[in-house]
UniProtKB/TrEMBL annotation:
One of its GO terms (cellular component) is Golgi cisterna membrane. It comes from Chloebia gouldiae. It is a single-pass type II membrane protein. Residues 64-98 form a coiled coil. This is Hexosyltransferase. Its main location: Golgi.
C-alpha cells in the first residue's frame, strides 16, 4: 500500500519534468531554424510583440526582398556577358575583313592579279595536302583507295557496279576528253624548249608513251580524283594554261594503251605519265595535278631503269610440273624480253627437289642464264618464311623484290611496271592480278580448252580481279628490311601477305595498288589442309570457291538437272506440235 501511494505522489513530478523538457527543446529548435537576415538573425515573434502571424509575414517579406536583389544581380551579370560576347563578335568580323579567305579562293574580279595569286596559292596548298610526294598512314587495308587502269577503249575496274564486268568500254565522253587533255598537256610540256640546251630538242609524241602490261609502248596515267567539269577549266578559273600544238599527237596510236587512276574526293587529281627516254631503259616521267581546277605540273624528271634489277622470289614445295610451266613464262618474259632479272627459288623439303633443280639447270644452259639462286630448307612449308629468307639472302646492292608464286603468269611490261611504281623510301607496288577461273568449267569440255595464251583475256566469264589478295608485290629490299619483313610465326597458307601490307599502310610509304593487265593467277585445284588454323582454313575455302567459276556459271551447274529437264520438255512439246 505504501509503495502504491509513493508512486502516485511521484508521478505528477515526473510529468512536470517531461513538460518542461519538451518546452525547452521547442524553444531551442525555433532559435536554430529561424531564417537569418544579411547582418543579423531574424528574431522570433515575442510574447509581448506582434502576433505570431504578423511575425511570419515580416519574415516572408524580407526573404522575398533578398530573392529580388539576387535576381537583379544575375540580370546585371547576363547583360555584361552579352555585351562582352557582342564585342568579341565584332572583333572576329574585323579580323575576317582584314584577312583573305582561309583557302585563298575568293576571286575578286575587280582585281585580277590578286584573284590569280589567291587561286594559285590555293592550288599549291592542295598539292601539298594530296598524296603526291609521300604516303599517308592508314589504319587498315580497307582504308586504302585502290587505283583503276583504263585505256581509250576500255576501263579495268575493281568496283564493277551493276554490270559485274571487270572491264568495259568507257561510254562517258568526259572520261575520254579528260584523258586526251592530260596527254596533250604532258606532250606540250615535254616539247616546250627549256632555253638551256643548244641541241635540237626531241619532239615527243603519243607513241613515246610507255608503262603498260603488254609488249607494246603503254602510257601511265595515275589520277586521284574525279575528272568532271574538265572542259570548263579556263572559264571557271582565271588562270591561262600553256597552249598545246594539237598535231604532235597521233591519237589513233593511243589505242589499247594503259593508264591508272584513283579517286580521293577532297584533294584533286594526280597524273603520272611516263615516256620513252633518249636511250634504251631510260624514261621521262612527268607528274601533273588537278586540284579541282586547272592542271598543274608538279615535276618533270628523267628515270633511268637500265641498271634496275628485279629479284623474283618464289617459295616452293613439290609442284614440279607447275614449276616447269612457270619457267617457260620466266624464260620468255624475264630472260629473253626483259633481261634485267634474277630468280630466287626457296624450296621446302626434299620431295621432287631434284626435278626442280633439273628444270633450273636446263633453263640455265639453254638460255645462258646464270642469275638464279636455289635455297633449300628442311622444314614445313611457310610462304612468309620462304619469301623472307629469299629477300634476306640477297647480298648485292639494293634491288627490287618481286614476291611471286609458281602459278603466276606475268609479262615483260609488268616487270617494267614494278620498276616504275617502286622507289626506295617512297613507294611500294601492290598490283591487283586477274585470277583465272577453272578452264574445264569455262570452256565446257577438255577437248575445247584453248592454249594458255588464248585463255589470258580479261572478261567476267573468264576470271575476276583478285582484290582480296596481297601476295604479289614489288618493293625495294631496303624498304622490306626497314619495315620488319614477314611475320615468321604465321605457318602454312595465307595471312602473311596481309600482315606485310598493313605494315606498309601504317608507314609513310605510298602504296600503289591497281589492277594490271599483265599479271595473271593461273587456275589450279586448291587443297585446304587440315593442319591450317580455323581462320586460315576459312580463307582457303573462300578462295577455292571464288576460283572455280563466276556466280552465274556456278548457278548453271547447281541447276543443271532442272535445265536439262526443261530442255527435254521443250523437245517433247515441239514434237507434239
Amino acid at each position: 500500500m505504501m509503495l502504491r501511494r509513493g508512486f502516485i505522489l511521484f508521478l505528477p513530478r515526473v510529468v512536470g519534468l517531461l513538460v518542461v523538457a519538451c518546452c525547452s527543446m521547442s524553444i531551442v529548435y525555433m532559435l536554430a531554424c529561424t531564417p537569418k537576415g544579411d547582418n543579423q538573425q531574424l528574431a522570433l515573434p515575442r510574447v509581448h510583440g506582434p502576433t505570431v502571424k504578423e511575425g511570419y509575414e515580416a519574415i516572408l517579406q524580407e526573404r522575398e526582398e533578398q530573392h529580388r536583389n539576387y535576381i537583379t544581380s544575375l540580370k546585371k551579370q547576363i547583360a555584361q556577358l552579352k555585351a562582352e560576347l557582342q564585342g568579341r563578335t565584332e572583333q572576329l568580323k574585323n579580323m575576317q575583313n582584314q584577312y583573305t579567305d582561309p583557302l585563298d579562293i575568293q576571286l575578286d574580279h575587280s582585281k585580277p592579279e590578286k584573284a590569280q595569286a589567291n587561286l594559285l596559292a590555293f592550288l599549291r596548298s592542295q598539292v601539298d595536302k594530296a598524296e603526291v610526294h609521300s604516303g599517308v598512314k592508314l589504319s587498315t587495308e580497307y582504308a586504302a583507295v585502290p587505283f583503276e587502269s583504263f585505256t581509250l577503249q576500255k576501263v579495268y575496274q575493281l568496283e564493277t557496279g551493276l554490270t559485274r564486268h571487270p572491264e568495259e568500254k568507257p561510254v562517258r565522253k568526259d572520261k575520254r576528253d579528260e584523258l586526251i587533255e592530260v596527254i596533250e598537256l604532258a606532250v606540250g610540256s615535254l616539247n616546250k624548249p627549256d632555253g638551256v640546251s643548244k641541241a635540237k630538242p626531241r619532239v615527243y609524241t603519243a607513241s613515246d608513251f610507255v608503262e603498260g602490261d603488254f609488249p607494246e609502248n603503254l602510257p601511265v596515267l595515275i589520277m586521284k580524283l574525279p575528272f568532271w567539269e574538265m572542259a570548263e577549266r579556263q572559264t571557271a578559273f582565271a588562270v591561262p594554261l600553256h597552249p598545246i600544238t594539237m598535231h604532235v599527237c597521233n591519237w589513233s596510236s593511243l589505242k589499247n594503251k594503259d593508264r591508272i587512276y584513283r579517286t580521293e574526293k577532297n584533294k584533286g587529281t594526280l597524273y603520272e605519265l611516263t615516256f620513252k627516254g633518249d636511250a634504251k631503259h631510260q624514261f621521262k616521267k612527268i607528274v601533273l595535278f588537278r586540284p579541282f581546277g586547272p592542271v598543274m605540273k608538279v615535276k618533270n624528271e628523267n628515270v633511268n631503269m637500265a641498271d634496275t634489277l628485279i629479284n623474283v622470289i618464289v617459295p616452293l614445295a613439290k609442284r614440279a610440273s607447275k614449276f616447269q610451266q612457270f619457267m617457260q613464262n620466266f624464260r620468255e618474259m624475264g630472260i629473253q624480253q626483259d633481261g634485267r632479272i634474277h630468280l630466287t627459288v626457296v624450296y621446302f623439303g626434299k620431295e621432287q627437289m631434284n626435278e626442280v633443280k633439273s628444270i633450273l639447270e636446263n633453263t640455265s644452259k639453254s638460255a645462258n642464264f646464270k642469275n638464279f639462286t636455289f635455297i633449300q630448307l628442311n622444314e614445313e612449308f611457310s610462304r612468309g618464311k620462304g619469301l623472307d629468307v629469299g629477300a634476306r639472302f640477297w647480298k648485292g646492292n639494293n634491288v627490287v623484290l618481286f614476291f611471286c608464286d609458281v602459278d603466276i603468269y606475268f609479262t615483260a611490261e609488268f616487270l617494267n611496271s614494278c620498276r616504275l611504281n617502286t622507289q626506295p623510301g617512297k613507294k611500294v607496288f601492290y598490283p591487283v592480278l586477274f585470277s583465272q577461273y577453272n578452264p574445264s568449267i569455262i570452256y565446257g569440255h577438255h577437248d575445247s580448252i584453248p592454249s594458255l595464251e588464248q585463255q589470258l583475256i580479261i572478261k567476267k566469264e573468264t576470271g575476276f580481279w583478285r582484290d582480296f589478295g596481297f601476295g604479289m608485290t614489288c618493293q625495294y629490299r631496303s624498304d622490306f628490311i626497314n619495315i620488319g619483313g614477314f611475320d615468321l610465326d604465321i605457318k602454312g597458307w595465307g595471312g602473311e601477305d596481309v600482315h606485310l601490307y598493313r605494315k606498309y599502310l601504317h608507314s609513310n610509304l605510298m602504296v600503289i595498288r591497281t589492277p594490271v593487265r599483265g599479271l595473271f593467277h593461273l587456275w589450279h585445284e586448291k587443297q585446304c589442309l587440315d593442319e591450317l588454323t580455323p581462320e586460315q582454313y576459312k580463307m582457303c575455302m573462300q578462295s577455292k570457291a571464288m576460283n572455280e567459276a563466276s556466280h552465274g556459271q556456278l548457278g548453271m551447274l547447281v541447276f543443271k538437272q532442272e535445265i536439262e529437264t526443261h530442255l527435254q520438255r521443250q523437245k517433247l512439246s515441239s514434237k507434239k506440235t
